[in-house]
């Protein structure tokens, strides 16, 4: 990769942060003359990811999730196009979100991954983990994370709560 990325992978979902990341990715792709690719990951329950035998009920459930995820990808692809983005390709993947984004970046030989970050911290991050953190650590290329305005307001709120509580404790 030179100074500007030639292939940008935009990891999208229905979140506010992904919408902001979409705007950034479109602007960057237009400015740099980069190809813009999309990836959406249909999130599967752990028993479908880990299970080696997907038969009967499990197969039907997997197909339902895959069908719904494909519809989400179509809708989000249109949003990107309506926002002025030129989509070079769109990929639906199923499974663990962070792992699938990294795998897609590797297969595409992307120079940059752009994704939203919800900015969960503390207990929520411990319970759920951070998809963006995992992608940043494992991706074969640079990763740009975009935070939403709501996320920043929430972080400031919790900082005030905890800093006020610690001041009162002394």
The CATH class is identified as Alpha Beta
- The proportion of strand residues reads 15-25%
Oligomer: single chain
Helix content: 55-70%
> What is the name of the CATH superfamily?
HUPs
Low-confidence stretches: 166-170
Number of strands: 5
Q: First CA to last CA: what distance?
A: 53 Å
Q: What is the mean pLDDT?
A: 83
CATH topology: Rossmann fold
Shape: globular
Major β-sheet profile: 5 strands, parallel
Give the helix/strand class.
alpha/beta
Strand order, largest beta sheet: 3-2-1-4-5
CATH architectural group:
3-Layer(aba) Sandwich
Radius of gyration, in angstroms, nearest whole number: 18 Å
Q: In total, how many domains does the architecture comprise?
A: 1
Describe this structure in words.
- By secondary structure, the chain is α/β, with parallel strands linked by helices.
- The protein has one domain: HUPs (Rossmann fold).
- The protein is built from 7 helices and 5 strands.
- It has a 5-stranded parallel sheet with strand order 3-2-1-4-5, sandwiched between helices.
- Helix 4 (97-108) packs parallel to helix 6.
- The longest helix has 26 residues, at 57-82.
- The protein is globular, with a radius of gyration of 18 Å.
- Mean pLDDT is 83; it is low at 166-170.
């Amino acid at each position: 990769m030179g100074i500007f990325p030639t292939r940008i992978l935009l990891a999208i979902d229905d979140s506010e942060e992904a919408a902001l990341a979409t705007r950034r990715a479109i602007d960057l792709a237009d400015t740099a003359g980069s190809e813009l690719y999309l990836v959406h990951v249909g999130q599967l329950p752990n028993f479908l990811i880990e299970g080696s035998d997907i038969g009967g009920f499990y197969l039907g459930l997997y197909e339902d999730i895959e069908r719904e995820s494909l519809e989400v990808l179509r809708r989000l692809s249109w949003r990107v196009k309506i926002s002025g983005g030129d989509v070079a390709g769109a990929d639906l993947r199923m499974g663990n979100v962070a792992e699938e984004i990294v795998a897609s970046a590797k297969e595409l030989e992307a120079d940059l991954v752009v994704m939203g970050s919800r900015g969960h911290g503390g207990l929520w991050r411990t319970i759920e983990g951070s998809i963006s953190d995992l992608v940043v650590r494992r991706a074969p290329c640079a990763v740009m994370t975009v935070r939403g305005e709501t996320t920043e307001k929430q972080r400031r709120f919790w900082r005030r709560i905890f800093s006020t509580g610690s001041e009162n404790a002394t």
